[in-house]
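I have been asked to look over a protein record a colleague put together. This is what I was given:
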Amino acid sequence: MKRVAIIFTLVLLICAAAAAIAGTALGAERKKVLIVSQGSDFKKDVIAQIRKQTEGRGVGITEKSLSYLSKTSEDEWDAIVVVHAIKVGRMKRDVKRFFDGVEDWNKVIVVTTCGSEDPVPEEYGIDSLTAASKQAQVDAASTYAVTRLKAILQVY
C-alpha cells in the first residue's frame, strides 16, 4: 500500500512537471495582438471574424478602444490592428498621434472606414485597407487583416 502511494505521488509530480513545462512552452509561443477600434456594428463584426480566424493559432488578442492608443507601446505587442474611421477627411486625434509615433510599420495593420467624400490621408505611406462600413465588406476587411497577421506573426 505504501509503495502504491509513493508511485502515485511520483506519477502526479511527473505529470505536474510536464504540464508546467508544456504551459511555459505554449506561453512562450503565444503571440500578442492588440486590436484597437471605435465601436460600430461593422467594426465589431470585422474583429469577431479576426478572432474566429486566429482561434487556436497561438494568438492572444487584446481588444481596446481607440483612446488606448495614447498608452500603447509598440514594443509590447507582436502586432497592432487599428480599425478606425475617417470622417470629414480627418482621423481621430488618438489615431493620428499613434501613427505619428510608429517606428515599425511592419507590425501595424490598418483598416479604415470612410465615406465616399472622405479621403484617406496618404501621409504615412502604409499598406492599409479602406472600406465603407457595409456588412458586405466585413469578409474582405477581416481577410485582409488576418492575411497581414499571418505574415507578421508567422504562426500559420
In short: The chain has four helices and six strands. The first helix runs from residue 2 to 29. The first strand starts at residue 31 and ends at 37. The beta strands are 31-37, 59-65, 79-87, 90-91, 108-114, 128-131.
